[in-house]
Amino acid sequence: MKVDVSPTAKDLGIKAAQKGADILRSIAKEKERLTVVIPTGASQLSMYDQLLQEPNIPWERIDLFHLDEYVGISSDHAASFRRYLRERIIARLPAFGSFCEVRGDAEDIQQELSRLNALLGPKEIDICFGGIGENGHLAFNDPPADFDTTDPYILVNLDMGCRRQQYNEGWFKRLEDVPKQAISMSIRKIMGSRHLIIAVPDGRKAEAVRNCLESEVSPMLPASILQQHENCHIFLDPDSSRLMTKTQ
């Protein structure tokens, strides 16, 4: 795990995108088809703006997956992660290999999980972009996270801290409107990625950043497991890193 602290949130996004682009260009020289996982959230916007400007990324050879989706909301809901990614990423790409949407409003969630796991299960993720939640979650794996399941996608319960974060960020009009369950990529599938690019701006994340990066690895601090990934690059700004006491 490597940690980089940028002078501003914008610089953080630029650095994270440039690192991710360098990795993508390098891997594209050794294999024909790439598998990439992309996250959502306001904290990722500056990173995406830069990533989409990076030259010589063979998007037409990249199969895109996303980390998670709420259960029970439609693809046109304002908080839908499918909608977020279609509008902010897919629509801005000149071409792309494929985009596998997580259908949180599927009539049969277990059947949807089976579909997703059949699609992603055999694939090695070349690079997974992500963040860290205010409660330390990784994707929607809230504490206590399941570090053991080998299923690529799982059904998870969202804790109150997670749901409150989604409400406070303006994705829902009322706290009670935030779904209580989601489909999430599992911890083990994320950790199986060849490379991880984790972008975490904002002082709201400072306590979670300190706890996850400086404490012992624990399911109660889901993102703490990032410490065990040798090709994990974490990008912070002065606000998100302000409580850290150790020099990485």
From TrEMBL:
Signal peptide: none annotated. Keywords: Hydrolase. The keyword Endoplasmic reticulum does not apply. It holds the Pfam family Glucosamine_iso. Gene3D superfamilies: 3.40.50.1360. Its EC number is 3.5.99.6. GO terms for molecular function: glucosamine-6-phosphate deaminase activity; identical protein binding. This is Glucosamine-6-phosphate deaminase.
